[in-house]
Amino acid sequence: MRKAFICPTKYVQGEDEILNLGYFIQTFGKSALLIAHPDDVMRVKEKLDATAEKFEVTFVESGFQGECSRQEVARLQELSKEKQCSCTIGLGGGKAIDTAKCVAQGDALIIVPTIAATDAPTSHSAVLYTPEGAFDDYAYFKQSPSVILIDTTIIAKAPTRFLVSGMGDALSTYFEARATAASYSKVNAGLPCGVREGVCPPAVGTNTALALAKLCYQTLLADGRKAKTASECKQVTKSLENIIEANILLSGLGFESAGLGSAHAVHDGLTILEGTHKYFHGEKVAFGTIVQLVLENAPQEELNTVLDFCLDIGLPVCLADIGVDRISDEELQAVAEKSCIPEESIHAMPFPVGPADVAAAIVAADKIGADYKRARGEKE
C-alpha cells in the first residue's frame, strides 16, 4: 500500500514574529518578492521595515493586483527574475498566498498569513482564477512552502469572523480524515505536479495524518470558545495560540495528508446558491460537516457535540445561517449533483453516495440544525 504525507519545511508561530521575517529571507539570499494586497502591507509596514533593517534584506513590492490568475502569475515571475529576487513571500489572505505559491512553483517560498480563516497556507496546492475572478484550475507543486510564519499579534487583531470561519474549516478535518481512512481513498499528499498525466500512482493517508486530524478536533473543542473571546478582545492568549495552530497547521496537514470527504464536496455544491456567496468558506464547510454526519448516521451524542460547538462560537448549523431561507427542489437537486461530480471528494466516503443521498442529508441536516438551535433558545 502506497502512503504519503506532505508538510512545510518549517512552521514558526509567535507574537510579533514578522520581526523575524528577515532572518528567513536571509537563508535564501538578500531580497524577496513581496506578494500582498496593499492594505495588508500597510497593516504590517512598521514590522516589515524593522526586519528589513535588522537583517539587511530588501522587499521588492509586486503591485499585486488581487487575483490569482495565469496572467498575474506570469507578470510576477518576470518581475522576480528581473529584480533577481532570492525568494517569494505570500502575505495576507488566500489570493495572495495562492499567487505566491504559483509564482514560486515550490521553491524558496515563505507564507505569512494575516488571518487564520482557512487551512490553505501549509498546502502544496493553489487555486487559479481568471482575471475576472472565475474559477480556472487547481495547481499542485513539488513541495509545500519552505516557511510558514505566523504572527499571532496580527491575527489577534483581525476581525473575529475570520478566526471562527477557520474553525469551521478545521471542524471538518477529523471527520473527513476518518471517512477517507475507512475507504482507503487517495489523498492530496500523493499528488505532485503531473499526476493527472499518470506520472506516479496515487497514495492513501498515513496514521500520522489521521492522528493530527483528531488532535485538531480535540483542540477546537477544548479551546475554540476561549479563543473566540480572546480574538474579540484582540488579545493573544494560550487558547488563541492553540486555535491558530489548529486552524492553520493541524487542519492543513490533516486535509492534505489525511483526505477530504463529504463536508467539502457539499460546500462546493452549496456555492451555486446565490445566498451563500457572502459567507466564508469555513462557514459553509461547517454546515457541510453536519450534512456529512447525517450521511454517516453518526451517533446522536457526536452530532450534538458538533452542533453545540458551532452554536457556541457562531458557526452555521442550518441553511438559513448561510443565506438560504428557501431552497426549491430544483436548486436542491442542482446542489446535490454538483456535490457528486466524479472529481469531488464525496467519493472518498466509505460507502456509495449519490445525489439523492446528498439531497436527503441536506434537508435532514437543515431541520436538525434549525430544531437544535431553536431548542437552545438561539435567535433565528
Automatic annotation (TrEMBL):
InterPro entries according to UniProt: ADH_Fe/GldA (IPR001670), ADH_Fe_CS (IPR018211), Glycerol_DH (IPR016205)
UniProt pathway: Polyol metabolism; glycerol fermentation; glycerone phosphate from glycerol (oxidative route): step 1/2
This protein's UniProt keywords: Metal-binding, NAD, Oxidoreductase, Zinc
Superkingdom of this protein's organism: Bacteria
GO terms under cellular component: cytosol
Binding-site residues, NAD(+): 94-98, 123, 129
Family indicated by similarity: Belongs to the iron-containing alcohol dehydrogenase family.
PANTHER family to which the protein is assigned, alphabetical: GLYCEROL DEHYDROGENASE, GLYCEROL DEHYDROGENASE 1
Protein name (database record): Glycerol dehydrogenase
Organism: Faecalicatena contorta
